[in-house]
Design the sequence.
C-alpha cells in the first residue's frame, strides 16, 4: 500500500474513533448514573432505555445561544475549547489496540501520550484567562495547581511499569505484561487511577469547576457548542486514560483468542476502567482543596516512589 494512503487511512480511523468513543462514554455515563442514582429522565428520550438521550443533549447544545461576553480576550476565548480537545486526539493516535492496530507506533509512546494529554490543561487555562471573569480565573488557578500535583505521581508510576517491561513503548509494555503485575504493580494501579481522575478534573476532584464555590470555574462564560466541546474533551480524556490504563496495567490486548480479538480486549478493559471512573463520580463527594494537595503529596507521591523502588529491586533480582 502507498505510504501516503496508509497514513491517510490511519488518520481517518483515529478521527472516527475519536468522534465515536467519547460519545459512547457520555452515553454510558448517563445510563450508569441513572441506574445508580435512580434518575428517571435519561431513561425516556427516544423510547427504549432512553437510547436517544445523547441525541437530545446534542440538540440542546446546538439550540443554545453562542454568547461571547464583551470583556473577553476573543481569540483566546474562542480557541480554548479546541486546545482542550485536540491534545487527546493526538494522544489517542499513539495508544495501541493491538500490536498492529495503532495509528502512530511511536518508540517512546508512554512519554508521548502523557505529554500530549497534559497539554489539554492549556485549554482550561486559556478559558480561565480569556473569560475576564474572577470565578473563571480562580477555577483556572485550581486546575493548574491540580495538574502540577498529580502529574508527578502519574509519571512515576508510568516509569515503574516501563522499568518492569524494559521499554517505554506501549506495544512493548503490553507484550511484556504478566498476570503477576496485577499483584506487585497494584499500588501503582491505584496511584495512576486516582491521578488520572484528578487530571480529568472529575468528581471527587472537580474543584476547578465546583458549582457551589466558583460557579463553573473556567467554563462559566461558555455556552452552546463551545461548552459542549469542553464536555467532549472531558469524555475524550476518559477514553485516553482508560485505554492507557488498560495497556499499562491490564495487558491491553492480552486474553483468549488475542490474535483475532486483541483490539476488542483492549476496548473492553478500557470500558471497565471508564465505568469505574464514572462510579467514582457517583459514589464520592468532592474533596476540599487542601485535602486534594495532601492526598497528592503525602499519599500518592510516596506510594509512587515506593512502587518505583519495588520495581527496581524486582528487576535487579530477576536479572541475576
Sequence:
Amino acid at each position: 500500500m502507498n505510504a501516503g494512503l496508509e497514513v491517510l487511512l490511519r488518520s481517518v480511523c483515529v478521527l472516527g474513533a475519536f468522534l465515536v468513543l467519547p460519545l459512547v462514554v457520555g452515553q454510558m455515563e448517563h445510563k450508569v448514573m441513572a441506574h445508580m442514582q435512580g434518575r428517571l429522565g435519561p431513561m425516556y428520550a427516544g423510547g427504549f432505555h432512553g437510547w436517544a438521550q445523547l441525541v437530545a443533549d446534542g440538540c440542546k447544545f446546538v439550540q443554545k445561544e453562542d454568547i461571547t461576553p464583551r470583556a473577553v480576550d476573543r481569540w483566546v476565548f474562542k480557541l480554548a475549547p479546541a486546545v482542550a480537545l485536540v491534545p487527546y486526539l493526538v494522544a489517542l493516535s499513539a495508544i495501541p489496540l493491538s500490536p498492529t492496530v495503532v495509528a502512530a507506533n511511536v518508540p517512546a509512546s508512554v512519554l508521548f501520550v502523557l505529554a500530549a494529554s497534559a497539554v489539554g490543561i492549556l485549554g482550561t487555562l486559556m478559558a480561565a484567562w480569556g473569560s475576564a471573569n474572577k470565578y473563571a480565573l480562580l477555577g483556572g488557578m485550581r486546575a493548574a495547581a491540580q495538574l502540577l500535583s498529580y502529574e508527578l505521581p502519574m509519571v512515576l508510576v508510568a516509569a515503574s511499569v516501563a522499568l518492569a517491561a524494559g521499554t517505554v513503548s506501549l506495544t512493548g509494555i503490553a507484550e511484556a505484561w504478566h498476570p503477576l503485575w496485577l499483584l506487585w504493580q497494584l499500588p501503582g494501579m491505584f496511584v495512576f487511577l486516582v491521578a488520572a481522575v484528578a487530571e480529568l478534573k472529575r468528581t471527587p476532584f472537580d474543584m476547578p469547576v465546583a458549582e457551589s464555590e466558583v460557579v463553573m470555574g473556567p467554563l462559566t462564560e461558555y455556552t452552546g457548542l463551545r461548552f459542549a466541546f469542553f464536555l467532549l474533551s472531558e469524555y475524550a480524556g476518559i477514553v485516553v486514560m482508560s485505554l492507557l490504563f488498560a495497556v499499562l496495567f491490564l495487558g491491553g490486548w492480552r486474553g483468549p483468542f488475542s490474535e483475532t480479538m486483541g483490539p476488542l480486549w483492549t476496548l473492553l478493559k478500557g470500558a471497565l476502567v471508564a465505568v469505574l471512573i464514572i462510579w467514582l463520580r457517583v459514589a464520592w463527594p468532592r474533596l476540599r482543596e487542601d485535602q486534594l494537595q495532601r492526598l497528592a503529596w503525602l499519599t500518592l507521591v510516596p506510594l509512587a516512589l515506593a512502587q518505583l523502588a519495588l520495581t527496581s529491586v524486582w528487576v535487579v533480582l530477576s536479572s541475576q
User: Anything to note?
Assistant: The two ends are 45 Å apart (CA to CA). The chain has 13 helices and no strands.
